[in-house]
Amino acid sequence: MEDDRTTFGPDPDLEAEGRELGADPEMLELRADAAAGLKTQELQADAATALEQRRQRRYLIRALLRSPTFMTGVIIVLFWVFMAVFSTYITQSPTAVDAMHSLAAPSAAHLFGTDELGRDVLARTMAGARTVLIIAPLATILALLWGGIIGLVAGFYRGYTDEVIMRLIDVLLALPIIITSILVLSLLGTGLTIIIITIGALFTPVVSRTVRSAVIGEREREYVMAARLRGERSPFVMAREILPNITQPIIVEGTIRLGYAVFTAATLSFLGFGLGPPSPDWGLTIATERIYLQIAPWTVMFPALALATLVVGVNLITDGLGRVFSK
After folding, report:
1. Could you tell me where the beta strands, DSSP code E, fall in the chain?
2. Cβ contact 153:161 at 8 Å
């Protein structure tokens, strides 16, 4: 009587044949070649992508170096950065008092004149860049960090998450920055760290809206869909796939916020919510010297011009970046 397993179950001869085919060296070699071919294609695709990215970076760098607007802004900003760092080695001390020469007009001894205490206005103007160039960049970095995270989450998930976040952002955008800053600093104090965090937090809603708009334009593209089909997690897709492709609008937004941060920091100092005397901070100097505007205008004019040139320099960088990125 025949075995039922032979009649109704798997044929032992077929199983043996399948095992022999699976163990066939030629079949194994074909499979290895196919896997190697796929791996080679992936490596070639990655290499091509990296090459294209390097080509684009070289093009952007050359375009920026050829942009008169961008380079003028960079020169202005670098000048004030240099002065903020090395002004004490180039000019006299910004706090040195000479009562015998108070409110002296500009001369060979004091190119920008002196203030009511005989302090050199040139030295104080050059050193005054130090405070604003500490506060403004750090506040801008915080705003980009916080706003970037919020914008990525809102733009990627959309739906209820996006609605809740955006409604909160709308409420924060309705608050006047200067008035809100004054209230916060009156409550928490006017330390340098508090000022940086306050300005960064108040600029975060604007940055988050910009990042959200950029993410919405990227989230439906093919490379994002491919990452989702591969089973990549949402944080990975946002950080490794979407974020590198929205760096240009983030950079432009960052330079715009930097200009506003410079002006905001100077305004808060002017209103008495920055560093106190004898700091050469531009906003503080303009506030304390404005009573001498009629008899010694140079005590106010030069710090005001310095602040204006720095803001103009940052705006020129922003304009140059925008023109190059739009091409």
Report:
1. none
2. yes
pLDDT tens sequence across 152-185: 999 988 888 889 999 999 998 988 888 999 999 9
CA–CA distance, 57 with 137 (Å, rounded to integer): 24
Residue showing tokens 């306050």: 198
- Which distant-in-sequence residues (6+ apart) come within 8 Å of 278 by Cβ? 94, 95, 119
Residue 150: CB partners within 8 Å, gap ≥ 6?
A: 165, 169, 204, 208, 211, 212
Backbone CA torsion sign across 191, 195, 197, 198 = positive
DSSP sequence for 1-33:
---HHHHHS--HHHHHHHHHHHT-HHHHHHHHH
Nearest to 77 by CA among 136, 120, 123: 136
Report d(CA 246, CA 237) in Å as an integer. Answer: 13
Residue 60, C-beta contacts closer than 8 angstroms, at least 6 positions apart: 324, 325
Give the DSSP per-residue string, 210-222: HHHHHHHHHTTSH
pLDDT in tens, 79-113: 999 999 998 888 888 888 888 888 888 888 888 98
User: Tokens 């709308």 label which residue?
Assistant: 170
pTM for this prediction? 0.80
- Backbone φ and ψ of 189, nearest 5°: 105, 170
Write phi, then psi, for 114 (nearest 5 degrees).
-130, 165
Q: Which residues contact 14 (CB under 8 A, 6 or more apart)?
A: none
